[in-house]
C-alpha cells in the first residue's frame, strides 16, 4: 500500500524534476522532499504575485489620484478637489509634500494656473512653515513668484499674509 501511494504520488510530478520511485524503504523521504519542493515553489510564486501586482495597482491608482488633483487645481474647482481628498481619505499635508503638478508643488501650480479659490484654500489649510519651506529649484516660494512675474497674484498676497514677513538670508 505504501509503495502504491509512492508510485501514484511520484507519477503525478513533472518528469523534469528528475524524481523517480525509490525502493520501498525510502518512499516517505521522497514524499517529504516532493512536498517540500512543491510548497517551496508555490510559496515563491505566491510571494511574487502578491509583491508585484498590488504594488503596480497602488502606484497606478496613486498616479490617477495625483492627475485628478492637478486637473482640479488647474480648473480652480475647489468642490471637486475636496471631494477627491475626502473620497480617498487623504490628508492635505501629506498630499502637499508628495504631489507635483508639472514639477511644481500644489500651491505653485495654483499660482501658475491662476486658481484663486484653490490657492487660497491651500494657503489657509497648510501650516505656515510648510509654505515657507516650499522651494522651486532651491528658491523659496515668494522669491520664485517675484522672479517669474506672479508677485502681484492674489494667491501670493494671501501667502504673504499667512506666513508674515520673510527675512532675507545673510
UniProtKB/TrEMBL annotation:
- InterPro entries hit by this protein: DUF3718 (IPR022193)
Tell me the superkingdom of the source: Bacteria
Which protein is depicted? DUF3718 domain-containing protein
Amino acid at each position: 500500500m505504501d509503495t502504491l501511494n509512492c508510485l501514484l504520488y511520484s507519477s503525478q510530478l513533472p518528469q523534469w524534476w528528475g524524481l523517480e520511485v525509490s525502493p520501498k524503504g525510502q518512499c516517505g523521504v521522497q514524499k517529504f522532499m516532493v512536498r517540500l519542493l512543491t510548497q517551496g515553489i508555490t510559496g515563491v510564486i505566491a510571494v511574487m504575485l502578491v509583491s508585484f501586482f498590488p504594488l503596480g495597482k497602488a502606484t497606478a491608482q496613486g498616479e490617477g489620484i495625483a492627475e485628478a488633483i492637478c486637473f482640479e487645481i488647474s480648473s480652480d474647482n475647489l468642490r471637486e478637489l475636496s471631494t477627491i481628498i475626502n473620497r480617498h481619505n487623504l490628508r492635505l499635508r501629506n498630499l502637499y509634500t508628495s504631489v507635483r503638478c508639472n514639477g511644481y508643488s500644489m500651491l505653485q501650480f495654483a499660482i501658475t494656473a491662476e486658481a484663486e479659490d484653490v490657492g487660497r484654500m491651500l494657503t489657509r489649510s497648510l501650516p505656515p512653515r510648510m509654505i515657507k519651506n516650499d522651494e522651486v529649484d532651491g528658491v523659496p516660494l515668494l522669491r520664485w513668484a517675484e522672479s517669474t512675474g506672479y508677485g502681484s497674484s492674489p494667491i501670493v498676497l494671501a501667502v504673504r499674509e499667512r506666513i508674515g514677513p520673510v527675512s532675507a538670508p545673510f
